[in-house]
Amino acid sequence: MITEYRQTNFAGSKLIMLNETLISSLRNHDHKAMDQLFNLYWEFVFDAAFKKTGDEEVAQDITQEIFISLWENRSSLDIAGSLQGYLYGAVKYRVINYFRSQAIRNRHQAELSYLLNQQQMPDTDARLILKDLNHDVEQALARLPERMRLVVSMSRKQDRSIKEIALELGVSAQTVKNQITAAMKILRENLSYILFIAFLLS
Fold first, then answer.
1. Which of 115, 125, 165, 193 is deepest in the core (most CB within 10 A)?
2. Residue 79 and residue 68 share a domain
3. Quick one: angle between helices 173-190 and 31-53, nearest 10?
4. Same domain flag for 49 and 86
5. What mean pLDDT comes out for the span 93-111?
6. Does residue 63 have a pLDDT over 90?
């Protein structure tokens, strides 16, 4: 479950009202609304992308692509639920596409289809498959060095931002980024493609 990103300037219903106003203005081609949305959410989007890829350059590209897409599709925007949830979903979609090369997709097409279309599977089968996948992923996470495992846990399970993790651990934001980058490299090397995708989707 996605926890609400901690905005410093707005909270609760005030933020929801602001989002609705900005989205409405965006649909009317308001450049200032786009600028304000970017300023409010670029860090949230970048953090989400970086925590899933461990690559700062890729995270920057994904962030840029998402906001470009938001502007290009402004007239037909249909956001059900929170804007944060919409943006988080966009991050997950682009991260999966980034890792899913043509060769790997062909090699694992059946398994990937199951994983990305769980709602079409019988409930019992889906639960068993996901239980096995999650067990293997948790075992891989348990083998990470302790400090690295803590950073990954705070990042993914507690949904902390990079700045929040750095503040709590008393280290720099760059140190947190380095830990996440190293963890993602280890996981990519030690998990099968399907297990790594399961980790990204979790």
1. 165
2. yes
3. 60
4. yes
5. 65
6. yes
